[in-house]
Amino acid sequence: MSEPVFLKRTIVKQTLWSEHLQEERKLRIYLPPGYNEVLSYPVVYCQDGEEFFNFGRIATLAGQLILEQDVEPFIIVGVEVNVAVRTAEYAPFGSRFKQYLACFAEEIIPFIEHNYPVRRTPEERIVAGDSLGGSVSLHLALAYPGLFSRVLSLSGAYYPETRELLSQEEDLSWLQINMVVGLQERDYKTDTGVYDFVEMNRETQAMLEAKGATVSYREKDGQHLWGFWQKELPESLLYFFSS
């Protein structure tokens, strides 16, 4: 017996040319069970797209939430990154940071909205990332509040430069962010130094709340690894999708 059609999932791979980055950028798009072009869907945009699908198992988790927890079907767009230039694109001090933000907001979003029936309000778009991907997701919302008001952050790398930019914001009452960090992330070595991610996330949470943002924040036993983030992804997604 073949499995029912609504259990089948579809992942489409696409490539677009970015004028801002002057290169091609690969996307992988998850279409939910029962996908129908006549309908419209909320959408989750993920940094580190390949990792979210391969190590975060986000397509599998999404299918479970939709089929077992009655979550409204949603589309996922994973934006792939070349690890060699990841910090340059994701960190606010990176040489490709501004170009990457512009590519995301001005090229990737219109491309997806032209080709897929995704909803087009900030409340129906979630931008998600791990580590520096969480940080650049927040920066996207700050730079383009008309596009993004909901951020899913897994152990966000909120370096001093991010917190400095954050301190210049006045009113973040439009922003909704779900943050999780692992308690075993206090001494984590990155390509730019050793950081205490717990302290970094606590300080960022306090800054966001002081400026009126709605923050859902949790600390759990876990390390700065996909094994931890994969376990936390369903709770973070449910925060935005449970009615």
UniProtKB/TrEMBL annotation:
It comes from the Bacteria. Transmembrane segments: none annotated. Signal peptide: none annotated. InterPro entries: AB_hydrolase_fold, Esterase-like, Mycobacterial_A85_antigen. This is Enterochelin esterase-like enzyme. It comes from Paenibacillus silagei.
